[in-house]
Amino acid sequence: MTHLLVVGSLIFVVAVAMTMVGKGGGNFYVVILAMAGIPMHTAATTGQFILFAASLAAMIIFHRSKSLSWKLALIIGTLTSLSAFGGGYFSYLFSGSALKMIFAVMLIAAGAVMLVPFSGKKAPARVTEGATLLLHPSAGILNISSGGELYRVNLWLVVPVTLLTGFSSGMVGVSGGSFLVPLMVLAAGVTMHTAVGTASTLIAATAFMGFTGHALQGDFDPAWALPLAAITIIGGILGGKFSLKTRPKHLKQLFAYTNWLAAAMMIANALMSG
Known about the structure:
By secondary structure, the chain is mostly helical. The chain has one domain (2-273). It has ten helices and three strands. It has helices at 2-21, 26-35, 40-64, 70-90, 96-113, 155-172, 177-188, 192-215, 222-245, 248-273; strands at 133-135, 141-146, 149-154. Strand 1 and strand 2 (141-146) form a beta hairpin. Helix 1 (2-21) packs antiparallel against helix 2, helix 4 (70-90) crosses helix 6 (155-172) and helix 6 (155-172) runs antiparallel to helix 7. The longest helix is centred in the last third of the chain and has 26 residues, at 248-273.
């Protein structure tokens, strides 16, 4: 019981912090569970399950506050899923240590770009709130309404960047939570809150599919998964609410710092295993 309380406390802190910035935190969950002595396959299954629980809870919070773009989630989700397959297929071209270093560099870069001052491109006020349409289809411009504002998304920029993000994430074997938010903020031009809310939706979908695949292999342990899921649901709700009350500048800083922490851990792991 004491063991579960300690693990649950760590999981709760990760759930709140990672939900606030739209990163999920699945990699941290698995590390914590593995360090607790849970077999790796069971840890991965449990990690995916509680990640789904936290992201789903956060998604509901962001949806209620209108800080979530379903259409942007559909576009990015579809493209990243397809390109992630290609990344996974060609990952054999690199060694395990090389993949870890590539992942670390990507984390550092994603964190750095989040500290660059940037404001989204708002669409003209003449477009009614709630509308989502293509303006000048030949130019590939999409207007997306979120949080009472309309944002102009350049598909010629978003599509290739999204494909590259998905390919890279698939190559190193992650869901891409650490790269989805920078993608939406910098390439799609939406606010930090909308990016975090939309990322929560994408992470929930990915985690559910990952959990299903693991569970079909018989690695699901409800004795750990169910109580930890209850904890992450609370963490996801609090993280979502804290995120909406936090200034975008501070969210970006938290995102960058946690990315760099994960990168340092990955580099250390690559050097020790290499």
